[in-house]
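Postdoc handover notes: sequence design on the structure in folder B. Input tokens:
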């Protein structure tokens, strides 16, 4: 990789309460701490290994919940304690990434930061890193940059980015103006986007000078920005705990898309680098099934993870993930999803996988919230 990235710092927001992949993912062990893809490596560890060649170990920061700090350090022994930002409670990505940017800017003025989720699945790491290098070069020009994923299907599960005119940036030949962000579309609209070739999936990756990102935050969410600056100013001082306890819970919960990316796009200050690599946010069990598609290790078309020898299927297809010694028998069901753990069993279908989050809400109000 090029050696002109000495001022580049990676930020890994590692949050979540495990609602969309319950019961495989739980509040005390969300999906980024799990080996969701069956590769033998957790999503968090894979994210680290993807970024380290660009930054070295010393320029990666992780923002995570206090409850996950110990396990994060266990999975990432190279992570410097100085670079761990523990949240007392989740306040969404504007607060998480904003605080990391403010801390890094105070420690390393002029730094470029990149935010990369801890729980996404990416293949073709070399192509990913090439896209990041281009993004850093575009960020050096004062732009906020995102990496958009070249869509391979008309998905309704992701937001979209409409890419505009090419930008003439030295070292970033594929950079294009961002014309607009679009929320998750309906199927017909998604098909039109795919056919046009003008749209990319929004993967939530943002690269910018820390000072530029903070300036955008100050303009669009001034109270949130003021709180972030107050915490960052105290972060490397004895006052940290008192200031965090007082200020952090008051910060607005809002995604960085709304406080930074979309406002910057409206002003012509956002660029996109198309990413030609495999990407999935593994956001529900339909996505997990997609990851394991074609790996049918039962007599029927069922992908069984964990204990395939204990899964018996007849005229069925789908995904089974087992963490128990039970025999699981399936007959006459298509695209079924079965998640079997010691204290909870989930049965759904790929089509209805998005409903798991609502199901978790019902469990939270039931007599058995302990399984969350």
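Designed sequence:
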């Amino acid at each position: 990789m090029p050696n002109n990235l000495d001022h580049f710092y990676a930020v890994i927001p590692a949050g979540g309460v495990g609602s969309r992949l319950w019961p495989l993912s739980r509040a005390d062990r969300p999906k980024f701490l799990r080996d969701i893809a069956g590769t033998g490596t957790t999503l968090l560890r894979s994210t680290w290994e993807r970024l380290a060649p660009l930054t070295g170990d010393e320029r990666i920061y992780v923002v995570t919940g206090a409850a996950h700090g110990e396990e994060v350090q266990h999975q990432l022994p190279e992570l410097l304690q100085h670079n761990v930002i523990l949240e007392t409670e989740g306040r969404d990505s504007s607060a998480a990434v904003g605080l990391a940017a403010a801390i890094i800017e105070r420690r390393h003025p002029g730094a470029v930061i990149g935010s990369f989720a801890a729980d996404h699945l990416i293949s073709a790491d070399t192509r990913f890193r090439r896209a990041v290098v281009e993004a850093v070069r575009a960020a050096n020009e004062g732009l906020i940059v995102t990496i958009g994923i070249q869509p391979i299907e008309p998905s309704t599960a992701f937001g979209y980015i409409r890419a505009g005119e090419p930008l003439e940036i030295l070292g970033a030949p594929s950079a294009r103006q961002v014309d607009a962000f679009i929320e998750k579309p309906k199927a017909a609209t998604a098909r039109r986007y795919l056919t046009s070739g003008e749209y990319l999936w929004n993967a939530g990756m943002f690269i910018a000078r820390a000072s530029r990102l903070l300036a955008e935050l100050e303009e669009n969410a001034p109270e949130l920005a003021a709180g972030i600056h107050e915490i960052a100013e105290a972060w490397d001082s004895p006052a940290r705990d008192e200031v965090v306890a007082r200020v952090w819970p008051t910060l607005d919960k809002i995604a960085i898309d709304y406080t930074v990316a979309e406002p910057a796009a409206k002003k012509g200050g956002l660029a996109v680098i198309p990413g030609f690599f495999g990407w999935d946010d593994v956001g529900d069990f339909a996505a997990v099934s997609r990851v394991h598609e074609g790996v049918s290790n039962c007599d029927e078309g069922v992908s069984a993870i964990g204990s395939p020898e204990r899964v018996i299927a007849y005229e069925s297809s789908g995904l089974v993930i087992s963490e128990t010694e039970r025999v699981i028998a399936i007959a006459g069901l298509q695209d079924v999803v079965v998640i079997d753990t010691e204290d909870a069993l989930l049965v759904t279908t790929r089509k209805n996988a998005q409903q798991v989050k609502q199901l978790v809400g019902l469990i939270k109000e039931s007599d058995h919230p302990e399984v969350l």
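Context for whoever picks this up: The longest helix spans residues 92-107. Don't rerun without checking with the PI first.
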